[in-house]
Amino acid sequence: MKADRLLLLTPLRKALERLEKLDPGLLTTNFPEIDWKGAMGFRDVIAHQYFDLDAELVMLICKDALPGVLSAIRSLEEQAMEAT
Questions:
Q1: CB-based contacts of 51: which residues, under 8 Å, 6+ apart?
Q2: Which 8-state DSSP code applies to residue 43?
Q3: 5 Cβ partners below 8 Å, 6+ apart?
Q4: Residue 74 burial by Cβ neighbours in a 10 Å radius (0-12, 13-18, 19+)
Q5: What is the pLDDT of residues 16-68, one digit of tens each?
Q6: Of the chain's two ends, which shows fewer C-beta atoms within 10 Å, N or C?
Q7: Are 29 and 62 in contact (CB under 8 A)?
Q8: What whole-number distance in Å separates Cα of residue 50 and Cα of residue 44?
Q9: Model-level pTM?
């Protein structure tokens, strides 16, 4: 993954925290199969351990975990659109 694309993941933590603040338990209740704490912590790894990142591990996370997170966010977005 190119560095510029990797940095696009850094806002993820704040976005997920905002969702949880608006509706506590929203993420874990609706999508218990997703490691939300890990998803939020991934931003810290990218931002603070940038030069020590294991490229293979980052690719594995992006390949295996990120699609589920994105799918959950899209589902929440659809629910919000239907509610308005």
A1: none
A2: H
A3: none
A4: exposed
A5: 999 899 999 999 999 999 999 988 888 888 778 777 888 888 888 888 988 99
A6: C
A7: no
A8: 9
A9: 0.75
Longest pairwise C-alpha distance within the chain: 44
C-alpha span between 81 and 84 (Å, rounded): 5
Task: Give the 3-state secondary structure of residue 55.
Answer: helix
Half-sphere exposure of 70 (CA within 13 A, CB side): 8
User: b/e for 28-44, b at 16 or more Cβ within 10 A?
Assistant: eeebeebebeebbebbe
